[in-house]
């Protein structure tokens, strides 16, 4: 498969792993990872999928996640059902990243794209990490898919850039 673009159907068989939010932001409280069937879930929702090179990395932590936290209500007002961050980190690291950012519920899900399995299928990896990209899926159809190739930039994948395309 090649890179996704607007008008494409979201591919079948895409799964991620995550730890469902428990309402607790204590980093020492751990759950068990579960599978998330993205292909099935995305067929019935409007979703913003954001991939980042790594949890807790400078641009991701200082710019990317805060941009989405600050604009949650704007996404909801544009009909977005779910915002999801993925990275190659395991589900426990992704869960801790969500907790470290004060996310106690499913307003933003933090999931593992283990071994960059999905990102590799669309060619958006850099070594053993995902590239920085955003994909908007509206009931199974891709309506936006862009990369940020400039180091430190979230122009295309940060909340403001994605909101401008909704």
Automatic annotation (TrEMBL):
InterPro entries: PRX5-like (IPR037944), Redoxin (IPR013740), Thioredoxin-like_sf (IPR036249), Thioredoxin_domain (IPR013766). PROSITE patterns: THIOREDOXIN_2. Residues 4-166 form the Thioredoxin domain. Gene3D superfamilies: Glutaredoxin (3.40.30.10). SUPFAM superfamilies: Thioredoxin-like. GO terms for molecular function: thioredoxin peroxidase activity. The keyword Oxidoreductase applies. One of its GO terms (cellular component) is mitochondrion. CDD domains: PRX5_like. PANTHER family: PEROXIREDOXIN, PEROXIREDOXIN-5, MITOCHONDRIAL. This is Thioredoxin peroxidase. It comes from Pseudoneurospora amorphoporcata.
């Amino acid at each position: 498969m090649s890179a996704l673009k607007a008008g494409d159907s979201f591919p079948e068989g895409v799964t991620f792993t995550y730890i469902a939010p428990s309402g607790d932001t204590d980093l020492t409280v751990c759950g068990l990872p579960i599978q998330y069937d993205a292909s099935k879930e995305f067929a019935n929702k409007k979703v913003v999928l954001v991939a980042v090179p790594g949890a807790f990395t400078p641009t991701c932590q200082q710019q990317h996640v805060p941009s989405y936290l600050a604009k949650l209500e704007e996404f909801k007002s544009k009909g977005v059902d779910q915002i999801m961050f993925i990275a190659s980190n395991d589900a426990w690291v992704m869960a801790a990243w969500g907790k470290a950012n004060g996310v106690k519920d499913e307003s933003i899900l933090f999931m593992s794209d283990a071994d960059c399995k999905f990102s590799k299928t669309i060619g958006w990896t850099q070594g053993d990490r995902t590239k920085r990209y955003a994909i908007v899926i509206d009931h199974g159809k891709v309506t936006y898919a862009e990369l940020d190739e400039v180091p430190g930039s979230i122009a295309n994948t940060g909340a403001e850039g994605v909101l401008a395309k909704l």
